[in-house]
Amino acid sequence: MLKALITGGNGFVGRHLQSYLRNTVGEKGEYTISIFDLSMGDDVRNFESIRTRIDQFQPDYIFHLAAQAYVPESTMNPRRGFETNLTGTLNLLEAVRQTGMHSRILVSGTSEEYGYDRDDSELTEESVAKPTTPYGVSKLAATTLCSTYSRIYGINIVVTRAWNHIGPGASPSYAVSAFAKRVAEAEKFGTIINHGNLDAVRNYTDVRDIVRAYRLAIDLESGIYNLASQNTVSTREVLSQLTNMAVTQVQTNENPHLFRQMSNKFPRPNYSKFSKLTGWEPKFQMKETLLDTLDFWRDAV
Amino acid sequence: MLKALITGGNGFVGRHLQSYLRNTVGEKGEYTISIFDLSMGDDVRNFESIRTRIDQFQPDYIFHLAAQAYVPESTMNPRRGFETNLTGTLNLLEAVRQTGMHSRILVSGTSEEYGYDRDDSELTEESVAKPTTPYGVSKLAATTLCSTYSRIYGINIVVTRAWNHIGPGASPSYAVSAFAKRVAEAEKFGTIINHGNLDAVRNYTDVRDIVRAYRLAIDLESGIYNLASQNTVSTREVLSQLTNMAVTQVQTNENPHLFRQMSNKFPRPNYSKFSKLTGWEPKFQMKETLLDTLDFWRDAV
Fold this sequence. Notes:
The structure is a homodimer.
Chain A: E1 2-7, H1 12-22, E2 31-36, H2 47-57, E3 61-64, H3 71-76, H4 78-99, E4 104-110, E5 122-123, H5 134-153, E6 157-162, E7 164-166, H6 175-189, E8 193-195, E9 201-206, H7 207-217, E10 223-227, E11 232-234, H8 235-245, E12 252-254, E13 268-269, H9 272-278, H10 286-300
Protein name (chains A, B): GDP-4-dehydro-6-deoxy-D-mannose reductase
InterPro entries (chains A, B): NAD(P)-bd_dom (IPR016040), NAD(P)-bd_dom_sf (IPR036291)
Domain NAD(P)-binding (chains A, B): 5-290
């Protein structure tokens, strides 16, 4: 039996990873999974909390997903982001180091570490990280710490930097999930969809492709690996695809109060380093992901 | 009167900065200086401690020097380094943000943010930061946070990245100060100087040139500025200069137990960005600095 500990295991990505591992047979048989999550009273900000779990569970794999991941909150309250994202990662790494565990660790970094408004045509793992948000800074600090820990203490730590991931179960704080929810509501209640500027371009990967990548990534050598897809599209395109899927006519309305200032530059994510090593490519088409997300909200609203 | 708050104000650099400011007349007359230092019960790790001081003192300038700066300790106890260097900086920036103060801030970063064992021929502010030690990571996280705070919240924050600074009053934990102390002891007691490998090349600036640079830097625009000198020399050269200054014959002895593994690569620090903007160049010759350091230990041992 392979033992996998998932921090933030009840979050959006954590739940998908749980389900992926439960449906996958590891090389030593099925996975025994231990969930470490704030919703269950576990807190990575508390060293003893994570240390005790690691000491008792003795994980082969640690998927460290626990994070304060909502960017606007990180700007309002940078301290919470730092405590969770950086101190939380430090606590986890220290717990592994101090207990002498030989767990392989995956730490989920983010494309936000590279920052916005930059002139590069594409972003590889070698691109200079210039985070634009406290969230990005906290994650860059955490992932830089990982590189240092693997070098100094010989711990195997894989860092992934994923671009936006979407799919069923995502919080409606995020644009794509919010749009899907509003389309589901519009179908049911005939509501109008208010939106701001739709020019922002982002790169989207299905969360189920992401968790499959995590499982592959954790067996790689220590290092940083970009995760992304070919789906670099505007928010306009996302909203249009979703409204086209609606079973009723859906009315959208541009509301200037919802406008946010944003950069139109968007360097292409390069994830060939990971792809070449593992053969991984996203399996889900954007259309399928959006439909599954819409169906999720159709059930929920 | 210009009001200057110095965190870590009783440390090696802090004491030199105090003395520099006390002997310099600011544009609005003399400086009123407030010292914030662990030796006086002040702790940047405690938000209320630094917030209260800033709120009450209302500084025009904040020189943020408080740090856990001894690299071997940062490797033994990364948590303390992170709490002091990163959380401490976060607390200071949050205190300024939350009190709405318009203080200009200087945060002392370090060349350790660039890391060792790299192939560059020289290091500018644009070079990729790849810290090799927990100390370097903690400082990189702090200085990246500074860039984010100046961008998001409009706070003026200057980050300096200085290479090794030396001079009278430095802790004998550091090689140059340790050698000077041993030479002073050898002169007095006839002791033999044991040393490890002397091949490590470093760049040295007199601490008095550094604090003069801090005073110039804090009036610049937000950004990162390298501080260094032309003195890139081996530890062998430093020891040899010091023993040549001794008034007695000093015997040195290579001790294999003191050998440490180190990289021989040492990219040249480029500090022309700062030099061009301010006209600053180091005034102290290496010889003068070493003699003053030796004299300091002659008085102390």
